[in-house]
């Protein structure tokens, strides 16, 4: 790589850090990359750190010692998330979204890369201090959101499916009770998708009774792994006992009147859970 001036180093280093979140990068890597002294690299990182914090882009953590380095942790401010969720709730309250059974049409939101990218960053903010090895989601609508979260946490995604795919090899399958219909269904995950002892973050687009999420939790147990958190984009107000107690929701579908096409959406428990996590740190 050609020799950079400081301005060039700052741009290139910032770009590298943003595209490699939650990865410990030795200072020697940047020193070799730019043919610069470690002292110069440290000064550059101080400038980037101040900029990240001032613009609320994230945190830049420095780890001392021979095996140390620098790590970028993407975050978002509460004010930014509030503004975003207010707009999202307004979008979701469109009466034309009402579907039979109290569900909402959400494909225009799930299919919007910009929206998914922002939501992924907010979930990554929530779970920034958790040891996450892999994101798990259910095909198909949860996939875009799962990949958005995985991008900011810099971890892979494993996809649970109802149907068998020969290209995925041998599977681990379980039966679970669909929370809304009470029907027995089957979900499967390729054996190669999840290593034993993995820390799994479950991400889904919509949760009503929680049957699908409960099924994924049970599936994680089959792999002798651990669920470190569950995040859902929309939780529906459910009169019966929910099958999942511990979860974090961005929004809550508090009322749906299919006859009058009335939809009410409010904030989920995101900020409540975020406050609890900060108090426990």
UniProtKB/TrEMBL annotation:
<dbReference type="Pfam" id="PF09182">
    <property type="entry name" value="PuR_N"/>
</dbReference>
<dbReference type="InterPro" id="IPR000836">
    <property type="entry name" value="PRTase_dom"/>
</dbReference>
<keyword id="KW-0238">DNA-binding</keyword>
<protein>
    <submittedName>
        <fullName>Pur operon repressor</fullName>
    </submittedName>
</protein>
<dbReference type="GO" id="GO:0045892">
    <property type="term" value="P:negative regulation of DNA-templated transcription"/>
</dbReference>
<dbReference type="GO" id="GO:0003677">
    <property type="term" value="F:DNA binding"/>
</dbReference>
<dbReference type="InterPro" id="IPR036388">
    <property type="entry name" value="WH-like_DNA-bd_sf"/>
</dbReference>
<keyword id="KW-0805">Transcription regulation</keyword>
<dbReference type="InterPro" id="IPR036390">
    <property type="entry name" value="WH_DNA-bd_sf"/>
</dbReference>
<comment type="subunit">
    <text>Homodimer.</text>
</comment>
<dbReference type="InterPro" id="IPR050118">
    <property type="entry name" value="Pur/Pyrimidine_PRTase"/>
</dbReference>
<dbReference type="InterPro" id="IPR029057">
    <property type="entry name" value="PRTase-like"/>
</dbReference>
<feature type="domain" description="Bacterial purine repressor N-terminal">
    <location>
        <begin position="5"/>
        <end position="74"/>
    </location>
</feature>
<dbReference type="Pfam" id="PF00156">
    <property type="entry name" value="Pribosyltran"/>
</dbReference>
<dbReference type="InterPro" id="IPR010078">
    <property type="entry name" value="PurR_Bsub"/>
</dbReference>
<dbReference type="InterPro" id="IPR015265">
    <property type="entry name" value="PuR_N"/>
</dbReference>
<feature type="domain" description="Phosphoribosyltransferase">
    <location>
        <begin position="112"/>
        <end position="254"/>
    </location>
</feature>
<dbReference type="GO" id="GO:0045982">
    <property type="term" value="P:negative regulation of purine nucleobase metabolic process"/>
</dbReference>
<keyword id="KW-0804">Transcription</keyword>
<comment type="similarity">
    <text>Belongs to the purine/pyrimidine phosphoribosyltransferase family. PurR subfamily.</text>
</comment>
